[in-house]
Amino acid sequence: MEQTVTPISEVGEFGLIERMKDALGESQDEDLLAGPGDDAAVYRAGKGRAHVATTDALIDGVHFSPDMMPLTYLGSKAVSINVSDVAAMNAVPRYALVTLGLPDNAYVETVEELYAGVRQAAEAYGLTVVGGDTTAAHRLTISVTIIGEAEERDVVYRGGAEPGDRLCVTGDLGGAYAGLKVLMEQREALEQKGSDYAPDLDPHRYVIQRQLAPTARLKTVQDWAERGVRPNALIDISDGLASEVHHICEQSDCGALVYEEMLPFNEETRQVAERNDDEPEHYAFYGGEDYELLFALPEAELDRLEAGGLTVIGECREAGDGVRRTTPSGEQRKLEAKGFEHFGA
Amino acid sequence: MEQTVTPISEVGEFGLIERMKDALGESQDEDLLAGPGDDAAVYRAGKGRAHVATTDALIDGVHFSPDMMPLTYLGSKAVSINVSDVAAMNAVPRYALVTLGLPDNAYVETVEELYAGVRQAAEAYGLTVVGGDTTAAHRLTISVTIIGEAEERDVVYRGGAEPGDRLCVTGDLGGAYAGLKVLMEQREALEQKGSDYAPDLDPHRYVIQRQLAPTARLKTVQDWAERGVRPNALIDISDGLASEVHHICEQSDCGALVYEEMLPFNEETRQVAERNDDEPEHYAFYGGEDYELLFALPEAELDRLEAGGLTVIGECREAGDGVRRTTPSGEQRKLEAKGFEHFGA
Asked: Which end of chain B is more exposed for a tag (fewer CB within 10 A), N or C?
């Protein structure tokens, strides 16, 4: 009997997720508000309350290199990237489960360093680690599940943007990718020049911190709650801005125009891009790992937010307009969705 | 500067968990009812309701060998072992998150087979897969997180057993380990005799099924709810009976006496043990992976349960009596806690 095998690269990460949803079938659970396909799953937990649940793993050799990633940072980052998904539902994190896969060369101290980072992040975000699993593994792995909560009516999905909404981002973009570039350059220099070489990382502190120790934008979500602001659509920028704009447009059934000249960059990000003959916009669109929030807000709501906390980078359009970007010269081009994928091209 | 490194084998899996709890510090969350240290974490979710959360991973080369474990079974088992932890809190599972780590030789069909097993189990236990994470990895990995629920007053912990309680188990013991023995024997025979050799697995169907496709005792928990029975202490048998009896005794601050001659075995388990010159009691105490329930119940409550559904295998004693077993000849010996650990001796 001949068996068909389909390389995962042929369907891509998002294609694979579709296959998985097909394999699972439809849910009949009436307390389930959102299954796979948003930043986190959402289900009712008590009258008017919703819980959100999300999980993300970091694996040695796939998501990080141990020689560039101190263990404390790794523990902290594993929590932050999950809190970012919780924030992207307009919810706050409550509980975390931490699974560690430990290779032969791991020691008790490895675990303690990782957990020091987990604790720092847990305290910063006000969540509690309630359990997990620890096992032998071939490569160092840390996988975190976070359960968060919100009023049911406050949860924000990817699918609520309306034509005319402003598209906004928090913070600045492309920094995490610039930081990765710097770390890889320095590793190469170390290999070439030997261990006497002391790299000067000081001019790149900001972008390196963006790569190694990202902060989830939970404070933004808390600020919205205080001001009574609720975006129409919300997603975190983990795969790159281009991919996230497409997710919002697909699920909101709208189009978008992104103003390339409005994208916010840190000066260090610009410098790294320039030195590499890259455009910083490319880092923002396709670099990933910025863990900022992208949200769609009616123009009238903009005044209720502090001007310094966000940048308007575009607008939602009718679905027929597609997803486009304006270049600084005023041209409009299609915004390709291609983001950072761990599988395929 | 000299750095101390402590091999994990020196502190063992349970010692490592203590270090991790120390590294995390005490929780201040007033809705948290139980953190690390039971089968699952427990927190309030609505008035009088509790949610339980648990996570467990299966990794190629650590927890299973791909040549002995069909992918559909693997998907199903990864769900079952987590449902077993939920049942061990006297709760029912509601939602699952599934994380897959896929090596280079994985195909779309690999994922679909795994998910067919996940779906079968999800349907059998009445839970819904609501999300997860999929990533490249060095070895095939499936990690499942399950969120279950119960009335707050119905949750049963490890720590409620009283001297005089009967110690009971569901089903039979040692079968999963007997199944593993058979599978390993057959693999060796295949290697020696070549691929023309067709092993006769039929006499071992039951124990192989116990190893590859365990069933969590959710029906037992549902039966208790219907009969209004609530054990004083409850744990699932994943590491072997000896280890689980010790967990209950430590957390209940009591001793125990296990009647070795009362341990329930399937005939196939006895046969495999005999052929290997082993004692089936050894499989029950130290084999692990049976996913039966061990519970402590006041004697008066026994009549309220169906006789066929459980075996009384011992009794709880005063803490000073320690944890002992009676051999068939009437002797009493210390019951060693040593169970199946993925780290250390």
From this structure: N
